[in-house]
Amino acid sequence: MAVIIQAQPEIRGVDVAVNRRYVYLISAIAALGGVLFGFDLVIISGTVPFFTKHFQLNEFQTGWAVGCINLGAAIGALIGGKLSDTLGRKKLLMGCAVLFALTGAGTGWAGSFPLFVTFRMLSGVAVGAAALVCPMYVAEISPAPMRGRMVSFYQLSIVIGILLAYLSNYLLLDTGVNNWRWMFSSQSVPSILFFLGLFFVAESPRWLIRKQRNDEAEAVLNRIGGSTYATAEAVQIKASFSQETRESVNDLFRKDLWPIVFIGIVVAVFSQAVGQNSLFSYAPELFRQAGMAQDSAFLQSIIIGVINFIFTFIAIGTIDKIGRKKLLQYGSILLCLDALALSAAFYWQLPGVWVLVFVLAFIAVYSATLGPVTWVALSEIFPNRIRGNALALATLTLWVTNFFTTASFPVMKQHWGLPVTFGFHAILCFVYFLFVRVRMPETKGKSLEEIEKQLIHQ
Protein backbone atom coordinates (compact mmCIF):
# COMPACT_ATOMS: atom_id res chain seq x y z
CA MET A 1 0.00 0.00 0.00
CA ALA A 2 1.45 3.36 -1.05
CA VAL A 3 2.34 5.97 1.55
CA ILE A 4 0.77 9.30 0.66
CA ILE A 5 1.11 12.84 1.91
CA GLN A 6 -1.05 15.88 1.43
CA ALA A 7 0.96 18.54 -0.33
CA GLN A 8 0.49 21.64 -2.39
CA PRO A 9 1.00 20.60 -6.00
CA GLU A 10 2.64 22.51 -8.78
CA ILE A 11 -0.74 23.97 -9.73
CA ARG A 12 -1.53 26.22 -6.80
CA GLY A 13 -4.89 25.97 -5.12
CA VAL A 14 -5.39 22.27 -5.80
CA ASP A 15 -4.78 19.64 -3.11
CA VAL A 16 -3.48 16.29 -4.26
CA ALA A 17 -2.27 13.10 -2.62
CA VAL A 18 1.38 12.56 -3.56
CA ASN A 19 2.58 8.94 -3.68
CA ARG A 20 5.60 9.65 -1.55
CA ARG A 21 6.87 6.07 -1.54
CA TYR A 22 6.92 5.90 -5.33
CA VAL A 23 8.69 9.26 -5.68
CA TYR A 24 11.31 8.17 -3.14
CA LEU A 25 11.82 4.85 -4.91
CA ILE A 26 12.43 6.16 -8.41
CA SER A 27 14.48 9.10 -7.11
CA ALA A 28 16.67 6.76 -5.06
CA ILE A 29 17.31 4.45 -8.01
CA ALA A 30 18.13 7.33 -10.34
CA ALA A 31 20.37 8.86 -7.70
CA LEU A 32 22.49 5.68 -7.67
CA GLY A 33 24.23 7.35 -10.59
CA GLY A 34 25.61 9.69 -7.96
CA VAL A 35 27.11 6.74 -6.08
CA LEU A 36 29.15 5.95 -9.18
CA PHE A 37 29.96 9.63 -9.62
CA GLY A 38 31.45 9.89 -6.11
CA PHE A 39 33.05 6.45 -6.21
CA ASP A 40 34.72 7.02 -9.57
CA LEU A 41 36.09 10.47 -8.71
CA VAL A 42 37.48 9.57 -5.28
CA ILE A 43 38.66 5.98 -5.74
CA ILE A 44 41.87 7.38 -7.20
CA SER A 45 42.74 9.09 -3.89
CA GLY A 46 44.02 5.84 -2.39
CA THR A 47 45.81 4.69 -5.51
CA VAL A 48 47.99 7.76 -6.11
CA PRO A 49 51.19 6.58 -4.34
CA PHE A 50 50.95 3.14 -5.99
CA PHE A 51 50.22 3.88 -9.64
CA THR A 52 52.60 6.86 -9.65
CA LYS A 53 55.36 4.52 -8.49
CA HIS A 54 54.28 1.82 -10.98
CA PHE A 55 54.28 4.21 -13.96
CA GLN A 56 57.14 6.40 -12.60
CA LEU A 57 55.19 9.69 -12.80
CA ASN A 58 56.27 13.23 -11.90
CA GLU A 59 53.93 15.82 -10.28
CA PHE A 60 52.63 17.08 -13.64
CA GLN A 61 51.83 13.55 -14.82
CA THR A 62 50.25 12.79 -11.44
CA GLY A 63 48.00 15.84 -11.77
CA TRP A 64 47.07 14.72 -15.29
CA ALA A 65 46.31 11.19 -14.10
CA VAL A 66 44.02 12.44 -11.33
CA GLY A 67 42.42 15.26 -13.29
CA CYS A 68 41.93 13.68 -16.73
CA ILE A 69 38.63 12.10 -15.66
CA ASN A 70 37.18 15.60 -15.54
CA LEU A 71 37.96 16.22 -19.21
CA GLY A 72 36.13 13.01 -20.01
CA ALA A 73 33.28 14.25 -17.83
CA ALA A 74 33.25 17.50 -19.81
CA ILE A 75 32.79 15.46 -22.99
CA GLY A 76 30.03 13.49 -21.27
CA ALA A 77 28.33 16.75 -20.32
CA LEU A 78 28.57 18.01 -23.90
CA ILE A 79 26.95 14.96 -25.44
CA GLY A 80 24.73 14.09 -22.47
CA GLY A 81 22.24 16.91 -22.97
CA LYS A 82 21.57 16.05 -26.59
CA LEU A 83 21.49 12.31 -25.95
CA SER A 84 19.09 12.73 -23.03
CA ASP A 85 16.73 14.71 -25.27
CA THR A 86 17.03 12.15 -28.09
CA LEU A 87 17.13 8.80 -26.28
CA GLY A 88 15.40 9.77 -23.05
CA ARG A 89 16.75 10.08 -19.54
CA LYS A 90 16.36 6.40 -18.65
CA LYS A 91 18.14 4.85 -21.66
CA LEU A 92 21.07 7.22 -21.37
CA LEU A 93 21.53 6.34 -17.69
CA MET A 94 21.55 2.64 -18.56
CA GLY A 95 24.30 3.28 -21.08
CA CYS A 96 26.27 5.18 -18.44
CA ALA A 97 25.98 2.25 -16.02
CA VAL A 98 27.49 -0.14 -18.60
CA LEU A 99 30.33 2.30 -19.34
CA PHE A 100 31.05 2.69 -15.62
CA ALA A 101 31.44 -1.07 -15.23
CA LEU A 102 33.74 -1.52 -18.23
CA THR A 103 36.03 1.43 -17.54
CA GLY A 104 36.52 0.60 -13.85
CA ALA A 105 38.09 -2.74 -14.72
CA GLY A 106 39.89 -1.22 -17.72
CA THR A 107 41.58 1.44 -15.60
CA GLY A 108 42.59 -1.05 -12.96
CA TRP A 109 44.27 -3.45 -15.34
CA ALA A 110 45.73 -0.98 -17.84
CA GLY A 111 49.19 -2.10 -18.98
CA SER A 112 50.52 1.38 -19.78
CA PHE A 113 50.04 4.95 -18.61
CA PRO A 114 48.40 6.13 -21.89
CA LEU A 115 45.90 3.26 -21.65
CA PHE A 116 45.30 4.11 -17.98
CA VAL A 117 44.47 7.71 -18.93
CA THR A 118 42.24 6.56 -21.80
CA PHE A 119 40.08 4.42 -19.53
CA ARG A 120 39.94 7.15 -16.89
CA MET A 121 38.71 9.63 -19.48
CA LEU A 122 36.09 7.17 -20.79
CA SER A 123 34.98 6.67 -17.21
CA GLY A 124 34.70 10.44 -17.01
CA VAL A 125 32.34 10.44 -19.99
CA ALA A 126 29.96 8.28 -17.97
CA VAL A 127 30.40 10.53 -14.91
CA GLY A 128 29.67 13.69 -16.90
CA ALA A 129 26.58 12.33 -18.62
CA ALA A 130 25.17 10.82 -15.43
CA ALA A 131 25.89 14.00 -13.43
CA LEU A 132 23.83 15.94 -15.96
CA VAL A 133 20.91 13.54 -16.37
CA CYS A 134 20.40 12.16 -12.82
CA PRO A 135 19.46 15.44 -11.08
CA MET A 136 17.53 16.59 -14.15
CA TYR A 137 15.48 13.39 -14.13
CA VAL A 138 14.78 13.60 -10.39
CA ALA A 139 13.73 17.26 -10.70
CA GLU A 140 11.39 16.42 -13.57
CA ILE A 141 9.52 13.66 -11.75
CA SER A 142 9.33 15.29 -8.28
CA PRO A 143 6.38 17.47 -7.14
CA ALA A 144 7.46 21.02 -6.24
CA PRO A 145 7.17 20.66 -2.41
CA MET A 146 9.49 17.63 -2.53
CA ARG A 147 11.84 18.58 -5.33
CA GLY A 148 14.64 20.20 -3.33
CA ARG A 149 14.76 17.25 -0.94
CA MET A 150 14.63 14.70 -3.76
CA VAL A 151 17.43 16.29 -5.78
CA SER A 152 19.44 16.58 -2.57
CA PHE A 153 19.31 12.78 -2.41
CA TYR A 154 21.48 12.85 -5.52
CA GLN A 155 24.17 14.66 -3.55
CA LEU A 156 23.67 12.13 -0.74
CA SER A 157 24.31 9.33 -3.21
CA ILE A 158 27.52 11.07 -4.34
CA VAL A 159 28.54 11.22 -0.70
CA ILE A 160 27.77 7.52 -0.26
CA GLY A 161 29.92 6.80 -3.31
CA ILE A 162 32.79 8.79 -1.82
CA LEU A 163 32.49 6.94 1.49
CA LEU A 164 32.39 3.56 -0.27
CA ALA A 165 35.48 4.50 -2.30
CA TYR A 166 37.45 5.42 0.82
CA LEU A 167 36.29 2.23 2.55
CA SER A 168 37.14 0.11 -0.51
CA ASN A 169 40.63 1.64 -0.67
CA TYR A 170 41.22 0.95 3.01
CA LEU A 171 40.04 -2.67 2.78
CA LEU A 172 42.12 -3.35 -0.34
CA LEU A 173 45.25 -1.56 0.90
CA ASP A 174 47.04 -4.77 1.95
CA THR A 175 46.20 -6.93 -1.08
CA GLY A 176 49.71 -6.76 -2.49
CA VAL A 177 51.42 -4.93 -5.35
CA ASN A 178 48.22 -4.98 -7.39
CA ASN A 179 46.17 -3.31 -4.64
CA TRP A 180 45.59 -0.18 -6.75
CA ARG A 181 44.30 -2.34 -9.63
CA TRP A 182 41.71 -3.98 -7.37
CA MET A 183 40.72 -0.56 -6.02
CA PHE A 184 39.79 0.65 -9.50
CA SER A 185 38.13 -2.63 -10.44
CA SER A 186 35.81 -2.49 -7.42
CA GLN A 187 33.88 0.24 -9.28
CA SER A 188 32.19 -2.40 -11.43
CA VAL A 189 30.07 -3.71 -8.52
CA PRO A 190 27.89 -0.59 -7.92
CA SER A 191 27.74 -0.08 -11.70
CA ILE A 192 25.94 -3.40 -12.19
CA LEU A 193 23.52 -2.63 -9.34
CA PHE A 194 22.70 0.75 -10.92
CA PHE A 195 22.02 -0.88 -14.30
CA LEU A 196 19.64 -3.44 -12.80
CA GLY A 197 17.81 -0.83 -10.72
CA LEU A 198 17.04 1.31 -13.76
CA PHE A 199 14.66 -1.34 -15.07
CA PHE A 200 12.28 -0.30 -12.27
CA VAL A 201 12.09 3.46 -13.00
CA ALA A 202 9.74 5.30 -15.36
CA GLU A 203 10.74 7.74 -18.05
CA SER A 204 10.53 11.48 -17.29
CA PRO A 205 6.96 12.75 -17.93
CA ARG A 206 8.34 16.03 -19.26
CA TRP A 207 10.46 14.18 -21.82
CA LEU A 208 7.46 12.00 -22.76
CA ILE A 209 5.25 15.04 -23.34
CA ARG A 210 7.95 16.64 -25.42
CA LYS A 211 7.96 13.53 -27.59
CA GLN A 212 4.13 13.65 -27.86
CA ARG A 213 3.76 10.49 -25.77
CA ASN A 214 1.09 12.14 -23.66
CA ASP A 215 -0.71 9.01 -22.47
CA GLU A 216 2.52 7.54 -21.09
CA ALA A 217 3.37 10.85 -19.40
CA GLU A 218 -0.04 11.12 -17.74
CA ALA A 219 0.24 7.52 -16.53
CA VAL A 220 3.52 8.39 -14.77
CA LEU A 221 2.07 11.62 -13.34
CA ASN A 222 -1.04 9.76 -12.21
CA ARG A 223 1.07 7.28 -10.30
CA ILE A 224 2.96 10.16 -8.66
CA GLY A 225 -0.02 12.24 -7.58
CA GLY A 226 -3.32 10.87 -8.85
CA SER A 227 -5.56 11.90 -11.74
CA THR A 228 -6.14 15.52 -10.65
CA TYR A 229 -2.43 16.12 -10.26
CA ALA A 230 -1.68 14.36 -13.56
CA THR A 231 -4.16 16.49 -15.52
CA ALA A 232 -3.01 19.76 -13.97
CA GLU A 233 0.67 18.96 -14.41
CA ALA A 234 0.25 17.82 -18.01
CA VAL A 235 -1.52 21.08 -18.89
CA GLN A 236 1.25 23.14 -17.33
CA ILE A 237 4.04 21.14 -18.97
CA LYS A 238 2.39 21.31 -22.39
CA ALA A 239 1.98 25.08 -22.00
CA SER A 240 5.72 25.45 -21.33
CA PHE A 241 6.43 23.69 -24.63
CA SER A 242 3.67 25.40 -26.64
CA GLN A 243 5.86 28.26 -27.82
CA GLU A 244 8.85 26.02 -28.36
CA THR A 245 10.89 26.30 -31.52
CA ARG A 246 13.70 23.97 -32.55
CA GLU A 247 16.21 24.04 -29.73
CA SER A 248 19.62 25.40 -30.62
CA VAL A 249 22.76 26.11 -28.63
CA ASN A 250 22.45 29.69 -29.89
CA ASP A 251 19.25 30.00 -27.84
CA LEU A 252 21.37 29.94 -24.69
CA PHE A 253 22.82 33.32 -25.63
CA ARG A 254 19.52 35.07 -26.30
CA LYS A 255 19.07 38.32 -24.39
CA ASP A 256 16.20 36.95 -22.27
CA LEU A 257 17.86 33.60 -21.50
CA TRP A 258 21.57 34.36 -21.13
CA PRO A 259 21.29 35.87 -17.60
CA ILE A 260 19.78 32.58 -16.39
CA VAL A 261 22.41 30.51 -18.18
CA PHE A 262 25.17 32.74 -16.76
CA ILE A 263 23.93 32.16 -13.19
CA GLY A 264 23.99 28.40 -13.82
CA ILE A 265 27.55 28.57 -15.17
CA VAL A 266 28.81 30.54 -12.16
CA VAL A 267 27.11 28.12 -9.73
CA ALA A 268 28.74 25.21 -11.55
CA VAL A 269 32.21 26.77 -11.63
CA PHE A 270 32.36 27.77 -7.98
CA SER A 271 30.94 24.45 -6.81
CA GLN A 272 34.24 22.93 -7.96
CA ALA A 273 36.68 25.79 -7.38
CA VAL A 274 36.30 26.32 -3.63
CA GLY A 275 38.76 23.56 -2.66
CA GLN A 276 36.84 20.38 -1.83
CA ASN A 277 38.36 18.53 -4.80
CA SER A 278 41.82 18.96 -3.34
CA LEU A 279 40.62 17.43 -0.08
CA PHE A 280 38.68 14.54 -1.63
CA SER A 281 41.24 13.56 -4.27
CA TYR A 282 44.42 13.99 -2.22
CA ALA A 283 43.22 13.39 1.36
CA PRO A 284 45.72 10.61 2.22
CA GLU A 285 48.56 12.69 0.79
CA LEU A 286 47.53 15.75 2.83
CA PHE A 287 47.34 13.73 6.03
CA ARG A 288 50.72 12.14 5.34
CA GLN A 289 52.21 15.59 4.83
CA ALA A 290 50.72 16.57 8.19
CA GLY A 291 52.76 13.74 9.75
CA MET A 292 50.34 10.79 9.83
CA ALA A 293 51.34 7.23 8.97
CA GLN A 294 50.00 5.62 5.76
CA ASP A 295 47.45 3.34 7.45
CA SER A 296 46.30 6.20 9.66
CA ALA A 297 45.99 8.53 6.65
CA PHE A 298 43.72 6.05 4.86
CA LEU A 299 41.62 5.67 8.00
CA GLN A 300 41.27 9.46 8.32
CA SER A 301 39.99 9.46 4.72
CA ILE A 302 37.16 7.15 5.79
CA ILE A 303 36.30 9.68 8.51
CA ILE A 304 36.04 12.31 5.76
CA GLY A 305 33.56 10.09 3.98
CA VAL A 306 31.51 9.58 7.15
CA ILE A 307 31.39 13.34 7.89
CA ASN A 308 30.43 13.99 4.28
CA PHE A 309 27.59 11.47 4.61
CA ILE A 310 26.25 12.74 7.94
CA PHE A 311 26.21 16.44 7.08
CA THR A 312 24.47 15.93 3.75
CA PHE A 313 21.34 15.15 5.76
CA ILE A 314 21.38 18.74 7.04
CA ALA A 315 20.90 19.96 3.49
CA ILE A 316 18.20 17.39 2.80
CA GLY A 317 16.28 18.52 5.87
CA THR A 318 16.68 22.27 5.34
CA ILE A 319 16.85 23.00 1.63
CA ASP A 320 13.07 23.27 1.18
CA LYS A 321 12.78 25.32 4.41
CA ILE A 322 15.77 27.65 4.44
CA GLY A 323 16.03 27.87 0.67
CA ARG A 324 18.76 27.53 -1.92
CA LYS A 325 20.16 31.07 -1.76
CA LYS A 326 20.70 31.24 2.01
CA LEU A 327 22.40 27.84 2.11
CA LEU A 328 24.80 28.94 -0.65
CA GLN A 329 25.55 32.17 1.23
CA TYR A 330 26.13 30.45 4.56
CA GLY A 331 28.25 27.77 2.93
CA SER A 332 30.52 30.02 0.89
CA ILE A 333 31.41 32.36 3.77
CA LEU A 334 32.04 29.48 6.21
CA LEU A 335 34.23 27.72 3.63
CA CYS A 336 36.19 30.96 3.18
CA LEU A 337 36.97 31.06 6.91
CA ASP A 338 37.86 27.35 7.03
CA ALA A 339 40.19 27.60 4.01
CA LEU A 340 41.99 30.45 5.81
CA ALA A 341 42.31 28.21 8.87
CA LEU A 342 43.81 25.41 6.75
CA SER A 343 46.24 27.88 5.19
CA ALA A 344 47.32 28.99 8.67
CA ALA A 345 47.62 25.39 9.91
CA PHE A 346 50.05 24.46 7.14
CA TYR A 347 51.91 27.79 7.37
CA TRP A 348 52.60 27.42 11.09
CA GLN A 349 52.93 23.63 10.79
CA LEU A 350 50.34 22.92 13.44
CA PRO A 351 49.98 19.31 14.69
CA GLY A 352 48.19 16.91 12.33
CA VAL A 353 45.11 16.81 14.54
CA TRP A 354 44.40 20.48 13.69
CA VAL A 355 44.70 19.74 9.99
CA LEU A 356 42.24 16.89 10.46
CA VAL A 357 39.79 19.15 12.35
CA PHE A 358 39.86 21.87 9.68
CA VAL A 359 39.58 19.36 6.83
CA LEU A 360 36.58 17.69 8.46
CA ALA A 361 34.97 21.08 9.13
CA PHE A 362 35.46 22.05 5.48
CA ILE A 363 33.87 18.81 4.28
CA ALA A 364 31.00 19.19 6.77
CA VAL A 365 30.15 22.70 5.59
CA TYR A 366 30.43 21.78 1.91
CA SER A 367 28.26 18.68 2.39
CA ALA A 368 25.54 20.67 4.18
CA THR A 369 25.47 23.56 1.71
CA LEU A 370 27.24 23.92 -1.64
CA GLY A 371 27.42 20.21 -2.48
CA PRO A 372 23.71 19.39 -2.63
CA VAL A 373 22.40 22.90 -3.38
CA THR A 374 24.47 23.10 -6.56
CA TRP A 375 22.68 20.15 -8.13
CA VAL A 376 19.28 21.39 -7.01
CA ALA A 377 19.91 24.84 -8.49
CA LEU A 378 21.23 23.50 -11.78
CA SER A 379 18.34 21.08 -12.15
CA GLU A 380 15.62 23.69 -11.70
CA ILE A 381 16.65 27.16 -12.90
CA PHE A 382 16.75 26.46 -16.63
CA PRO A 383 13.56 26.73 -18.74
CA ASN A 384 12.12 23.46 -20.10
CA ARG A 385 12.89 24.25 -23.72
CA ILE A 386 16.64 24.81 -23.16
CA ARG A 387 17.20 22.57 -20.12
CA GLY A 388 19.17 19.92 -21.99
CA ASN A 389 21.64 22.31 -23.67
CA ALA A 390 21.83 24.66 -20.68
CA LEU A 391 22.62 21.84 -18.27
CA ALA A 392 25.16 20.51 -20.74
CA LEU A 393 26.92 23.89 -20.86
CA ALA A 394 26.80 24.32 -17.07
CA THR A 395 28.13 20.85 -16.35
CA LEU A 396 30.76 21.27 -19.07
CA THR A 397 32.11 24.28 -17.20
CA LEU A 398 31.79 22.34 -13.95
CA TRP A 399 34.01 19.54 -15.20
CA VAL A 400 36.55 21.82 -16.85
CA THR A 401 36.85 23.68 -13.54
CA ASN A 402 37.12 20.37 -11.70
CA PHE A 403 39.94 19.33 -14.03
CA PHE A 404 41.97 22.47 -13.49
CA THR A 405 41.52 22.47 -9.71
CA THR A 406 42.33 18.77 -9.37
CA ALA A 407 45.18 18.65 -11.88
CA SER A 408 46.78 21.87 -10.60
CA PHE A 409 46.77 20.92 -6.92
CA PRO A 410 50.02 18.86 -6.87
CA VAL A 411 51.71 21.54 -8.98
CA MET A 412 50.49 24.39 -6.74
CA LYS A 413 51.51 22.39 -3.67
CA GLN A 414 54.96 21.81 -5.11
CA HIS A 415 55.66 25.38 -6.27
CA TRP A 416 53.54 27.60 -3.99
CA GLY A 417 53.03 25.47 -0.91
CA LEU A 418 49.82 24.50 0.85
CA PRO A 419 49.36 27.81 2.73
CA VAL A 420 49.12 29.79 -0.52
CA THR A 421 47.01 27.09 -2.19
CA PHE A 422 44.32 27.15 0.49
CA GLY A 423 44.55 30.95 0.75
CA PHE A 424 43.66 31.10 -2.95
CA HIS A 425 40.62 28.86 -2.31
CA ALA A 426 39.53 31.21 0.50
CA ILE A 427 39.49 34.14 -1.93
CA LEU A 428 37.35 32.16 -4.39
CA CYS A 429 34.88 31.29 -1.61
CA PHE A 430 34.47 34.96 -0.73
CA VAL A 431 33.93 35.97 -4.37
CA TYR A 432 31.21 33.31 -4.63
CA PHE A 433 29.55 34.63 -1.47
CA LEU A 434 29.29 38.08 -3.05
CA PHE A 435 27.88 36.69 -6.30
CA VAL A 436 25.18 34.64 -4.56
CA ARG A 437 24.17 37.61 -2.43
CA VAL A 438 23.73 39.87 -5.46
CA ARG A 439 22.60 37.64 -8.34
CA MET A 440 21.20 34.31 -7.13
CA PRO A 441 17.36 34.05 -7.12
CA GLU A 442 15.41 32.02 -4.56
CA THR A 443 13.46 29.13 -6.12
CA LYS A 444 12.21 27.04 -3.19
CA GLY A 445 8.59 25.87 -3.35
CA LYS A 446 8.04 26.88 -6.98
CA SER A 447 7.26 24.61 -9.92
CA LEU A 448 9.78 24.40 -12.76
CA GLU A 449 7.36 26.35 -14.93
CA GLU A 450 6.87 29.05 -12.26
CA ILE A 451 10.65 29.40 -11.90
CA GLU A 452 10.91 29.80 -15.67
CA LYS A 453 8.38 32.67 -15.67
CA GLN A 454 10.05 34.34 -12.69
CA LEU A 455 13.56 34.30 -14.14
CA ILE A 456 12.67 35.24 -17.71
CA HIS A 457 10.51 38.20 -16.70
CA GLN A 458 12.48 39.51 -13.73
TrEMBL record:
Its main location: membrane. It is a multi-pass membrane protein. One of its GO terms (molecular function) is transmembrane transporter activity. InterPro entries: MFS_dom (IPR020846), MFS_sugar_transport-like (IPR005828), MFS_Sugar_Transporter (IPR050820), MFS_trans_sf (IPR036259), Sugar/inositol_transpt (IPR003663), Sugar_transporter_CS (IPR005829). Keywords: Cell membrane, Membrane, Sugar transport, Transmembrane, Transmembrane helix, Transport. It is found in: Cell membrane. Residues 26-444 form the Major facilitator superfamily (MFS) profile domain. The chain crosses the membrane at residues 22-44, 64-80, 92-111, 117-139, 151-172, 184-202, 257-277, 297-316, 328-348, 354-378, 390-410, 416-436. Belongs to the major facilitator superfamily. Sugar transporter (TC 2.A.1.1) family. This is MFS transporter.
